[in-house]
Amino acid sequence: MTSRNFAASDLTRIAGAIFSAAGSQPAEAQMVADHLVQANLAGHDSHGVMRIAKYVDWVLAGEVLANRHATVVTDKGGLLVIDGGFGYGQVIGWEAMGLLGARAKRHGFACAALRNAGHLGRIGAWAEQLAADGLASVHFVNTSGYGILVAPHGGSDRRLSANPIAAGVPMTGGDVILDIATSVIAEGKIQVTRNKGEALPEGLILDGAGKPTTDPARFYAPPPGAILPFGGHKGFGLSFFCEVLAGALTGGGSSHPDNPTAKRLVNNMLSLAFDPAAFGSAEAFATDLVRLADWTKGSPPGEAGGEVLLPGEPERRTRAARLRDGIPLDKETRRQIAAAAKRVGGTLPPEFRE
Ligand code: NAD
What we know:
By secondary structure, the protein is an alpha+beta fold. Helix content is 42%, strand content 17%.
């Protein structure tokens, strides 16, 4: 389908106007828009402006509440339990990470248990926020029921969420940011593939009968299909612990259709933040990291012309390229954004309406 490139600043302005028209105060509209466009810049289109249409659906249905803020419900110094009040995850996540970062600086280590946030988007953004503050971090995320998409290893239907895990550490020359779903593919990437009218590679999804398929439409057809966990029992095991740590422990609830919040997309996240300086010498830590990175990247390429990339490097490269060349949006995604704008009474430039 016809793809067109848009400047990040234009997409941010357009997305911000839609969220404003949908009821967000200017700062919130800007923050949500910026997070989505940053996901596009990082190359994760599944978590970019393609999400506008769903976010508008949710806010109009009262499933996401505009202009909410993170509320600390338990404060034990190094442990904060935070309730998102079903607000936009971009705002709640940013506020929660701000609180967590301050506690990690004070105590050397801190934990934030965030529950009842709206969609937290690209989870790597939260590791980046803390890394920018000099902190290492790890994040476990689940959804409490709405996002049940993934078959357990050995099973054949949807039982678990895509359950991403992110980790980050500041490093000279570029922060290292790992950001992965525990499903073999993020659900949004199935949507992207369907929007482009393409087939998926083999080994990623099952159809409604529990049989392997490459057709993204079969995943959404009644009865719905399921995504496989990455790495068989290993991804499944990590996913299960996302449910334990982000779901059961935070109080947001693990994936289950009977969960009280299972009818709306709620993300819960357990985040751990570490201040390297509190563990010993910040300089020695920084030096060791660079040595580790150089050692790892020094491995001879497995294939001619290949190279070892550290987590976060592909996103940095894509960001540089897309800031230069623009962000590609396929026709179906443009149509969905235009329809969302119309629903909230906004207007869009003509290239969205073609
Ligand atoms: P992915 O498979 O593209 O993996 C991305 C990670 O792998 C990044 O850390 C990247 O730097 C690293 N990477 C990629 N290629 C590499 C290479 N050649 N060498 C070394 N490292 C490499 O990501 P995904 O699992 O499809 O997840 C996509 C996005 O979806 C993530 O941002 C995730 O947070 C998001 N997500 C969010 C939710 C939610 O509930 N909010 C759920 C699932 C996924």
